[in-house]
Design goal:
The complex is a heterodimer of chains A (about 150) and B (about 150). Chain A has two domains: about 60 residues, no CATH class; about 55 residues, no CATH class. Chain A contains six helices and four strands. A three-stranded antiparallel β-sheet of chain A has the order 3-2-4. In chain A, a hairpin with a 2-residue loop joins strand 2 and strand 3. The N and C termini of chain A lie far apart (about 80 Å). By secondary structure, chain B is mostly beta strands. Chain B has one helix and 14 strands, in the order βββββββαβββββββ. The chains are: A alpha+beta (about 150), B mainly beta (about 150). At the A-B interface, helix 2, helix 4, strand 1, helix 5 and helix 6 of A face strand 3, strand 6, helix 1, strand 8 and strand 9 of B.
Chain lengths: ~150, ~150
Amino acid sequence: MAVKFAESSQQSFRPRIEPSTHAFLGHLTSEPGPAFELMCVKHLLGQGRVARAREILQRILLQYPTDEKLLNLYRVISPGKVVRSNVRYSDRTLEMDWIKANRSVYKGKWVALLGGKVIGIGDDLKTVLRMVQEKQLRDIPLIHHLD
Amino acid sequence: MLSLNGIPFTTGRATYRDLHPQHVSGKSAIYVQVVLPIHVGTSFYVIVDTGAPYCIFDTELSEALGLSFDDGESFKLRTAYGEVTGTIQRLMIELVAEQGDSLEIDASVFVTDDWTHGNFLQPVSHEAALVTSHCSLSILVKPSVCECKVI
């Protein structure tokens, strides 16, 4: 009887992991493994807290450096490179004028424009992209969906 | 382009539009032209959203870009239009300039199969920033090396 009582007492002092603990992202432990930690990182990403998610992911990767899921996620949320390119484009004044003048006529359509010229009009984006591809243009057209 | 004490302060300039001509609603925002890597060269107007954590495009456009919403770790993102489920992927987006240099941005894009609220660009990284003035969008590369005074 006494032994049973002692076991029962020990159980009462065993630390419990409450489901709500998962929300306290600043107190992560490595015990549950990368799946648990990945869930925490995704929770942060869903809140738009990318910098914090990146920090935690970096830390987890020290423990699980070959985990593909963690590596892929770190790659897509890492700060992106920005490179200057010596290319300039038109301000699209002619295209905007065309849209203003014709949007009610072609409501609901996708349109590709280059200058004031219509390259293609269609019900979906794929159709218009096919039209643009067929024209083999040197310049880049502007594509719009006319709401 | 903008200069500071006679030294070029920005690296490029583009006209932005505060009202998209295709929207009759009259909702005001900053629209800029970007070139997206579809198999044919095409440009689109997108909304600059400096508060967004990721770029996000209408599902039809994401599909045309070859982005699949089930490619990667999915999670729920809280947006102004409610929660949406999707994944993050990388995409090269060219923020086009009319003067100076355009910028190629290796951007994180949230891809979902249920987004019809417009195309949003999250343009600011640790390497570039945007300045708007007089319907013109100026592009700064490596803003940390510049000193900026607001008058």
